[in-house]
């Protein structure tokens, strides 16, 4: 057991944690954007998805930085990494989450897109619920 713990210590452990944070961040972004589709099948997920979608829209409209981003950057620095010199998956997730040349206008458009997609999904869900009553 000690050997497996030692393998997570130091720079290797920080790099692994940074990769895990990046994967969690990407999964959260996908859930924010497309989670409403899950809600159509499982309406109880709305209690989880609505706050996540609101957070995602607020981050984009506010021009804020998600707390996962600085956490990942600190872990990468602790691992001695400068940017993404990682594996293929890490590289592409990086481009998805932090596209080069992201402008304030693009952020607002992304937030509006998330808002519109989810408004359509929840409108359909509300319509379905009203028809049942």
Major beta sheet, specifics?
A: none
β-strand amount: under 5%
| Number of self-contained structural domains | 1
The SS-based structural class is: mainly alpha
**Form type:** elongated
Q: Which regions have little confidence, pLDDT < 50, spanning 5+ residues?
A: 1-7, 85-89
Describe the protein's architecture and organization.
The chain crosses the membrane at residues 20-40, 47-65, 105-125. It comes from Quisquiliibacterium transsilvanicum. This protein has six helices and no strands. Mean pLDDT is 82; it is low at 1-7 and 85-89. Helices cover 79% and strands 0% of the residues. The protein has one domain. It starts with a helix and ends with a helix. It is elongated and about 60 Å long. Helix 2 (10-41) crosses helix 3 (46-62) and helix 2 packs across helix 5 (88-97). The chain has 133 residues and is mostly helical.
How would you concisely characterize the structure shown here?
The protein is mainly alpha-helical and 133 residues long. 79% of the residues lie in helices and 0% in strands.
Give the secondary structure arrangement, pairings included.
Blueprint: H1 2-7, H2 10-41, H3 46-62, H4 68-78, H5 88-97, H6 104-132
Helix pairs in contact: 2-3, 2-4, 2-5, 2-6, 3-6
Organism: Quisquiliibacterium transsilvanicum
Pfam family, one: DUF2784
Keywords: Membrane, Transmembrane, Transmembrane helix
């Amino acid at each position: 057991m000690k050997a497996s713990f030692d393998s997570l210590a130091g720079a290797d452990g920080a790099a692994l944690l940074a990769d895990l944070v990046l994967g969690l961040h990407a999964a959260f972004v996908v859930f924010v954007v497309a989670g409403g589709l899950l809600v159509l099948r499982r309406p109880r997920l709305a209690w989880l998805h609505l706050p996540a979608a609101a957070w995602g829209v607020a981050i984009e409209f506010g021009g804020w930085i998600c707390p996962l981003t600085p956490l990942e950057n600190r872990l990468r620095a602790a691992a001695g990494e400068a940017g993404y010199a990682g594996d293929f998956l890490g590289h592409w997730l990086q481009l998805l989450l932090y596209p080069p040349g992201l402008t304030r206008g693009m952020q607002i458009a992304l937030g509006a897109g998330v808002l519109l997609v989810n408004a359509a999904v929840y409108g359909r869900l509300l319509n379905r619920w009203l028809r049942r009553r």
